[in-house]
Predict the 3D structure of the following.
Amino acid sequence: MHVRLISFFVVLILSLPVGSHRAEGALYLSGSGPLITSVQDFRGWLLVTSDPDWRQEWNDPSGDVPRFKQTESVRLGEEVTVLTLYSNPSTDEKGHIDIICDIRIRRPDGIFSYEKDAVVCGDGELAGEPSTVRLAYAVISYSGERGDPCGWWQVEVRLKDGNTGIDIILETAFELVNEAQMALAEGGPAGVP
């Protein structure tokens, strides 16, 4: 069976320096907060946002706290972005971090749309305090297209600290809804095609 991969793009943000981080706690989220998973002091979480300008918010040179609108649903033609965030990575004897991600995206019908192991998600010299919030290089973008199955799309990222061997399994999901489902959820007419 041929699985269409057009809908998902995993982008490596190679232009972001290792110092692409925010001061500890300097992240504002609207909606329900993401589940932060921690092993020892190493922390990670996934954030699903519908903000088209998330990159500008993150890279704002003014130092203002970035504000991300979280979402759990997407309509056909709309885009959501899944950000992998982490803090407290360990360093080697040279002060370098080594963060690797294994990424799995499962459609509502159980078929994997994307599977990739050993994606470099952070490396080089650690800039700033270890406790600062950092954005992984791999960013997942999804745009709902006709033919994509409606329902809950599952995202799993295994975030590994290569310097300690600690890994954290991060999971989130978003729902692809058709227009009629969305209209009902928003209190609109049920007959929307």
